[in-house]
């Protein structure tokens, strides 16, 4: 079947929404919002308001204003989470550069002998080469000019500073189990050993990419599933969500908070998240997987 629906003007979009049962009290404000936030971006937030997903008809009492409020909440949530992941990323990056450069040499990340899957390592390394080549950071420009006869990539403390979290995650996950630094890094982050950290880094990468591309976190079925520690050495949860709930954001936020407590002691993640939820009291926290007593958990009080 071919797609035959025409492009709709903003007044036509509003008329269609009203015909489907969405309450719009301020037409001028709705036009302004649709001019700045696309119809299909907002559709992700009014999707849950529809009682018939095929006909796109809305439940009684559904309002355009609530959809915009959800969008604004999600936008602020993304900014908060993105900042948290940034702190974690830099903390992990610094530990990898330091530990592995001292265990081996400054070019450890290029050595195929350290990695389990050599083909995967070569693909990661090629991606890293492209990231370095694109970078115009002053320290890399200076390195190219000063060491122009050295055909190697810059050392880890230069090269890996411009590498994405995704490639850092792939480097760590692909390291051989015999690499001592792999356990040292995990233990330093209170993750006990190398068993758990790869899945945490993978899911953080996925969520970071959602945030960077302005995707939706609220009511999102997340693809990653972090492998949880059975007996965490640092404050954790008295109620751990079952595996069937790990597609929701809450368990991922818990993993972020756990690592952030090591990297940034005394952080204000709890207060910022609580403040955001208070700012938008109509938000259904169940759509994020948050239990009503989440702030009472030892993890969120530390």
Automatic annotation (TrEMBL):
Protein's organism: Nibrella viscosa
Designated name of the protein: Abi family protein
InterPro entries with a match to the protein in the record: Abi_system_AbiD/AbiF (IPR017034), Abi_system_AbiD/AbiF-like (IPR011664)
């Amino acid at each position: 079947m071919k797609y035959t629906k025409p492009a709709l003007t903003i007044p036509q979009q509003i008329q269609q929404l009203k015909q489907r049962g969405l309450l719009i009290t301020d037409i001028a404000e709705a036009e302004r919002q649709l001019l700045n936030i696309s119809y299909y971006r907002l559709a992700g937030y009014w999707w849950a308001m529809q009682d018939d997903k095929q006909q796109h008809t809305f439940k009684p009492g559904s309002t355009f204003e609530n959809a915009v409020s959800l969008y604004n909440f999600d936008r602020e949530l993304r900014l908060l989470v993105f900042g948290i992941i940034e702190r974690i990323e830099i903390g992990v990056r610094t530990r990898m550069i330091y530990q592995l450069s001292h265990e081996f040499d400054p070019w450890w990340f290029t050595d195929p002998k350290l990695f389990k899957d050599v083909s995967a390592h070569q693909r990661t390394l090629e991606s890293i080469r492209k990231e370095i080549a694109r970078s115009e950071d002053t320290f890399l420009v200076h390195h190219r000019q000063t060491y122009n006869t050295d055909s190697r990539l810059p050392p880890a403390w230069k090269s890996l500073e411009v590498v994405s979290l995704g490639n850092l995650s792939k480097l760590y996950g692909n390291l051989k189990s015999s690499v001592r630094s792999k356990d040292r890094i995990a233990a330093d982050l209170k993750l006990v050993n190398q068993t758990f950290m790869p899945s945490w880094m993978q899911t953080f990468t996925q969520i970071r990419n959602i945030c960077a591309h302005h995707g939706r976190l609220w009511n999102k079925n997340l693809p990653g599933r972090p492998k949880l520690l059975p007996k965490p050495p640092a404050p954790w949860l008295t109620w751990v969500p079952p595996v069937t709930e790990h597609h929701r954001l809450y368990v991922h936020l818990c993993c972020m908070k756990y690592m952030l407590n090591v990297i940034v002691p005394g952080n204000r993640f709890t207060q910022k998240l609580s403040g955001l939820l208070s700012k938008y009291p109509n938000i259904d926290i169940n759509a994020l997987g948050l239990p009503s007593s989440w702030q009472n958990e030892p993890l969120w009080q530390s």
